[in-house]
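Progress against Task 2.4 (sequence-to-structure conversion) is shown through the following example record, which the project officer requested during the mid-term review.
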Amino acid sequence: MIIDIHGHLGNINQAPFWAADAEKLENYCAEAGVDLLCLSSSKSLMYDTKEGNAELDVALKKTKKLLGYIVVNPVFPETARELHLLKENPKFRGVKIHPDYHGYDLASKAVIKFLDKIADQVKLMLIHVSCMPGTGFADAVRVANFAKRHPKTNFVLAHMAGIYQNGHYPYFPNLQGCEEVAAMKLDNVYIDTAHYLMYVYPGVMDKMVELAGADHIVFGTDTPLQGPMQMRFAIETIKALKISDADKNKILCGNAKKILRINNLLPSSTPSDGQEILYNERKSEPSQGRLK
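Structure tokens generated for the chain above:
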């Protein structure tokens, strides 16, 4: 099984070549060999949070491979009410926040007060980490410090904890965020692979595994920013790592299964139009190992 923990429904970045509805995303998964994709709504991130969450709610009920994140935005505190979807549609598995798109800084006390209340109510948060040091609102260490405040909630730090290309030598990927977060040794923090740099240059994924450990890496692609061919590149990069098959399995699906709280599909009946495919929910399990 392969689980992609980071995708987007709709027209991310308002570019037609990156637009993908639910059907297209399921086709991407089928072409790439991905079994489940957990995604947020592009509309929620870039236009209207409530409308986007509602659009994703409908899509989840009509698809087999898709799971979802609810998006909330502290700039509009009323979006906290969107958490009702977690109870009404079990295919929503957590919450996503994007400080850079929504324009708020995690250094703000008011922002942290809002997000503290969210984190206390959910089991999983996917947080965008800025990939351009000095220009974003979501520095990797600041995100990890927020996660440290909520040890009972699991956190995924996106984009290899903010990997970036050195401005003075643009072909050199910088893993500073991953290194700093790994040094904090937080059991509830995971880092996703959602960045094309993970397969463009040799050794990037090897270094990520060395820093974070296979127990705290989850597979993600940022699809449809990456199409099925790029998704396959990412999968093959992980399969080619010189680590055990058990560790490869943790990265490709095992860790995601745990933090998304997936047990088994319930194949009690064949889904009809509009019928949800539900997932068993289990209690949070302790993290296997620590960031190292």
